[in-house]
């Protein structure tokens, strides 16, 4: 793939994440599942979840810590893989 | 040639880092069926449906690891790809956020059954540590993200391979896998919660509108990222891709 193509594709990915921020002023970009929960209570007004998560992060900060950790671990493994393979590649 | 590889890797990293900026803006939330939100009967039903895939997937992944030990690292990398993408909640056009699934890459490189296990591990991690998704809904969420997604990716890839450019085939496979995951989630919710008036279809359209439209831009992103990773792999590690039967490798 040409360098320019890669650059362009990365730009598209970034734009796809940033443009919506300006399309929906005032929105908090909550999860789509919260809205699904709304529909469930519309269809079955008195639905009670019959099982609670065994453990939930105490708040948004801890939750984002765990999500950041998840992304960091994954990115670390990906970086390690490409590093190893690049090192193995005959010069 | 070497420089090109370095650039590919750098851009990939940059894309992943910048995607994180999206996470900082977006409120954390979940996209899968939440804990306790499927009636017991449906929760069990989806476990039963997923079970054979887990059994076959477990055997396949073990076979791959013993027969092709050199591919272990790549297997780990494709798992990590799903892990990263599942952690990224990206703002979407509808004003809500959702995350890609990352299951297309592994399905294309290894096959759908291997990805069943990797996807389920990601779901298990999120259910236990993040209260995202759930243990009672693990069967249903596995079916949508770790089974339907990879199988669609694999099918589309097999169908398009050779008929169009590899990049177009990979993009389509990964993007559709991402989309189908949320279509299946909508079906699962609509089956469990049919609208009293308009029935299954009415509910499906309601859930589908929320999940699927939010997901379209993310599916495009996922398709592009998968293409970038596969191209970086082709540059760095073509022989290994070939040993996996990845016909696109030079």
Tell me about this structure.
- The complex is a heterodimer of chains A (91) and B (250).
- Chain A is mainly alpha-helical and 91 residues long.
- Chain A has one domain.
- Chain A is 68% helix and 0% strand.
- Chain A has helices spanning 3-23, 32-43, 60-88.
- The radius of gyration of chain A is 21 Å and the shape is extended.
- In chain B, a hairpin with a 5-residue loop joins strand 1 (90-91) and strand 2 (97-98).
- Chain B is globular and about 60 Å long.
- The longest helix of chain B has 45 residues, at 199-243.
- With 250 residues, chain B is mostly helical.
- Mean pLDDT of chain B is 86; it is low at 17-30.
- Chain B has 8 helices and 2 strands.
- The interface between A and B is large, with 64 and 94 residues.
Largest contact between chains: A-B, 64 and 94 residues
For the residues shown, what is the average pLDDT of chain B?
Answer: 86
For the record, give the distance between the C-alpha atoms at the N and C termini of chain A, rounded to a whole number: 20 Å
Q: Portion of residues in helices of chain A?
A: 55-70%
Shape designation of chain B: globular
- Flag low-confidence runs of chain A: none
Helix and strand sequence of chain B = HHHEEHHHHH
The quaternary state of the protein chains shown equals heterodimer
How large a portion of the residues of chain B is in β-strands, by DSSP E?
under 5%
How large, in whole angstroms, is the Cα Rg of chain A? 21 Å
Helix coverage percent of residues of chain B? over 70%
The chain-level mean pLDDT of chain A equals 85
Tally of individual helices of chain A: 3
Q: How far from one another are the termini of chain B?
A: 14 Å
Write the layout of secondary structure elements.
The complex is a heterodimer of chains A (91) and B (250).
Chain A: H1 3-23, H2 32-43, H3 60-88
Chain B: H1 2-25, H2 40-67, H3 72-87, E1 90-91, E2 97-98, H4 103-109, H5 112-129, H6 138-160, H7 166-192, H8 199-243
Antiparallel strand pairs in B: 1-2
Helix pairs in contact in B: 1-8, 2-5, 2-6, 3-5, 4-5, 4-6, 4-7, 5-6, 6-7, 7-8
